[in-house]
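Subject: Sanity check before I submit

Could someone independently write out the structure tokens for this chain? I want to compare against mine line by line before I put it in a report. The sequence has 264 residues.
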Amino acid sequence: MQRTVTSHLDLTLSGPAKLVFSVAVAQGAPFASEELAFVADGEQVRAQELVDVNGTRLHVLETAADRVTMDYRAVVDGRFPDPGVEPLDLVTYARPSRYCESDSLGPTAASLFGGLQEQELLTAVSSWVAGHIAYAAGSSLPTDGAVRTLLGRQGVCRDFAHLSVALLRALDVPARFAAVFAPGLDPMEYHAVCEAYVGGAWYVVDGTHLAPRQSLLRVSTGRDAADTAFLTNLGGAVQLSGLEVTAVVDELPRDDGSSLVQLG
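---
Independent answer below. Compare away.
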């Protein structure tokens, strides 16, 4: 499987800023090629790369420029190697987090999915979220969490992922949030999914059913969207003037949603 992905960001700044980008394919991918370029007020500049414990690559740029653009392109030939599972992950991703209030959803999760385990549980959570939450662009706020999504019954991919993560954690199943490139997604954008730990491995849960899980390509991983935002601004005001994302695969797989799929 060969996947080719690109991303372009166009930013307008009102003052000095420290920008943290999470736009590149995660560490460990079998790259055939990769290019990342930043331009500030017409001049190419370099960003510092930091890698977190999950392999998320953060690119930090401190600038006083008025305009910054970012262009990224990568060709990934094959799938990620199995990274294994760290014991600490099974604690970190079983706890509630800012956008995944699993401690508030225990009774709901138990009533909906009590007694289900492993693949049967993941399929049931994905199907329930898909059937009860409407995908509606622009329907949620950046601060919305799983509880508000459940009550409002609508959201975008990050809301679907947050709710899936929270419901699974409420049942003591470790679950985490992943931002991905998603070949087959329409309209094209960065995408978000849930990963759940069952049977000794992490498997994708995506109630949006908008792209085949087999072709997804990991960008970042964390407790929720607070750990995986494609852009974080630690400074003056920043306006996102342009965002373009593409993701294609040499052969788009079919996904009937019935099998366990790992993100790679």
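---
OP: Matches mine. For the report I'm noting this point. The chain has a mean pLDDT of 95.
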